[in-house]
Write a structure and sequence with these properties.
Largest sheet: 5 strands, parallel
Strand order of the largest sheet: 2-3-1-4-5
Bound molecules: adenosine monophosphate
Radius of gyration: 16 Å
CATH class: Alpha Beta
Strand content: 5-15%
Number of domains: 1
Structural class: alpha/beta
Order of helices and strands: EHEHHHEHEHHHEH
Amino acid sequence: MRLVLMGPPGAGKGTQAKFVSEALNIPHISTGEIFRKNVTEGTELGVKAKEYMDKGEYVPDEVTNSMVAARLAEPDAKNGFLLDGYPRTLPQVSELDAILDGLDTKLDNCVEITANTDEVVQRLLKRAELEGRPDDTEEVIRNRMVVYARETEPLAAVYEEHGILLKVDGMGEVDEVTQRLLAALGH
Ligand code: AMP
């Protein structure tokens, strides 16, 4: 199964991606995690990405796209994957289609986790306290919500037009949401 998981910051996308990919036995590919790993390791990619991440902005498409193309060409992604946090812009949607075309395959579904904005901000502030991510200050959180609404929310309509969008309510207990996601995917 080839899936994209999208949803606003704090909707529980990363947590759900982990559970769903385990249940479906497909690799979980999180662009945010790959960026964070590169930041920690101080790679060239990490240095470039950090500048944007710290402000809650998106890393430029060229940087993100080539990273994803390389990751999707790895053998473990051959029979399926769950992309978490990619695509996030319209050019990334086209790039993903082109990457998959080149691999002679296509996406099965895009799953949008929907969430209540106020609740989401509260969740993110709590995560900031627990994990201390540098992009989890209140100002950066608010900016990430604005960027999401402007750049990423419109992608759902594109996938809806392609007939592959599934919407799942992300509010409630973590395992409830996982069950909803798996049910939406026919599991
Ligand atoms: P996430 O862990 O998915 O919330 O991603 C953390 C940060 O990494 C984002 O706020 C962006 O700065 C960057 N990032 C992750 N995925 C992408 C993407 N597809 N395009 C651009 N920037 C991204």
